[in-house]
């Protein structure tokens, strides 16, 4: 009887300790959200250059501007040359930082030699592995989704690994890698199966590497945001949950020293906590899928700002 009592006391203490650790972790985000420390000197201490993939639009474009504003020179890698040229001019004009652009299509596998050549000789301290694609914004069954499996694997998975391989050896003593995953990676999302799985890869890869490199001065952080209003989300109306890319990037840079994983903003951290409360039998039920296919789809349709080709 006494042994049983001791066992339950032990379990109780363990649960309290785990809850305490979670509260402290959460309080850290609340504190940093309101305090907004400027990470300028920290970011600059990493090296002269930052490399951003998928820098031609959305989140990648905002990271490029923000890092340049923090005094770094930036290498922009993305698909559309005209967009890169326009952003490069704007960054140079508004921040005075140097900008280098590399055109590359990450759905292809033969682009990395050219990227490596173009990065030679630069003192790179920061990498934002941001490029990614979401073939179906509207939820859809795997076999009904656009057939872009190979492109998605190249763009969302191969790019993260290969750009990482190109850069990790060039880091001198220090380095910061931000891998942009998604909230859809935190647990498997039905009706977004390929996207969710590809982003889960980014999470796992990132956290495993951080364990390997922790002692070597290299910080690898994976970000798991939910909705951000960008081209990918057809410029969904921003609200308390749907952040603008600018809001998200600015806030996420406050959390770069908080550990190997976060959602990048407080609102999404809270949302993730709520979603974790949903029991898996409910999350993976037919009813939840019907909810995604009906109410959630209607919500998306009513709130996107690019209606063209969206009702198919
Ligand atoms: N938006 C969200 O709600 C959200 C939420 C969670 C995670 N994320 C992740 O955040 C990252 C950025 O998303 P975003 O919303 O900023 O996307 P976005 O607005 O569509 O911008 C993506 C950028 O990547 C470039 N790109 C796309 N495919 C490419 C390819 N095959 N080769 C080279 N460049 C390519 C695009 O080039 P172009 O300029 O030529 O189009 C664009 O500049 C992605 O990894 C995404 O999965 C987004």
UniProtKB/TrEMBL annotation:
Query: Where is the protein found, in the record's own terms?
Result: Endoplasmic reticulum
Under InterPro entries, the record lists: NAD(P)-bd_dom_sf, Sc_DH/Rdtase_CS, SDR_fam, VLCFA-Steroid_DH
Q: Record keywords: Zinc-finger included? A: no
Q: What is its EC number?
A: 1.1.1.62
Q: Which UniProt keywords apply?
A: Lipid biosynthesis, Lipid metabolism, Oxidoreductase, Steroid biosynthesis
Q: What class of enzyme is it?
A: oxidoreductase
Please tell me whether the keyword Oxidoreductase is annotated for this protein: yes
Q: Which family does it belong to?
A: Belongs to the short-chain dehydrogenases/reductases (SDR) family. 17-beta-HSD 3 subfamily.
Q: What is the name of the protein in this document?
A: 17beta-estradiol 17-dehydrogenase
Q: Which organism is it from?
A: Echinops telfairi
| Name of encoding gene | HSD17B3
């Amino acid at each position: 009887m006494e042994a049983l009592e001791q066992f339950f006391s032990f379990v109780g203490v363990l649960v309290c300790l785990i809850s305490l650790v979670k509260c402290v972790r959460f309080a850290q985000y609340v504190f940093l959200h309101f305090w907004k420390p400027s990470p300028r000197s920290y970011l600059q201490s990493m090296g002269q250059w930052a490399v951003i993939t998928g820098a031609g639009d959305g989140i990648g474009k905002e990271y490029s501007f923000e890092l340049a504003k923090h005094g770094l020179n930036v290498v922009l890698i993305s698909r559309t040359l005209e967009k890169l040229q326009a952003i490069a001019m704007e960054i140079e004009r508004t921040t005075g930082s140097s900008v280098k652009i590399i055109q590359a299509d990450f759905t292809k596998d033969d682009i990395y030699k050219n990227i490596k050549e173009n990065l030679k000789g630069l003192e790179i301290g920061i990498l934002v592995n941001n490029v990614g694609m979401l073939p179906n914004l509207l939820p859809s069954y795997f076999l009904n989704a656009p057939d872009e499996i190979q492109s998605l694997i190249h763009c969302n998975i191969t790019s993260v690994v290969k750009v990482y391989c190109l850069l990790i050896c060039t880091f001198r003593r220090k380095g910061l890698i931000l891998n942009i995953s998604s909230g859809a990676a935190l647990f498997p999302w039905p009706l977004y199966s390929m996207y969710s799985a590809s982003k889960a890869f980014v999470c796992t890869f990132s956290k495993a590497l951080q364990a390997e490199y922790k002692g070597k001065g290299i910080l690898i952080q994976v970000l798991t945001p939910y909705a951000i209003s960008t081209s990918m989300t057809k410029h969904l109306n921003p609200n308390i949950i749907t952040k603008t890319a600018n809001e998200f990037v600015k806030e996420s840079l406050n959390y770069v020293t908080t550990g190997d994983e976060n959602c990048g903003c407080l609102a999404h951290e809270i949302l993730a906590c709520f979603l974790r409360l949903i029991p898996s039998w409910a999350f993976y039920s037919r009813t939840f899928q019907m909810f995604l296919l009906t109410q959630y789809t209607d919500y998306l349709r009513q709130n996107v700002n690019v209606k063209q080709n969206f009702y198919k």
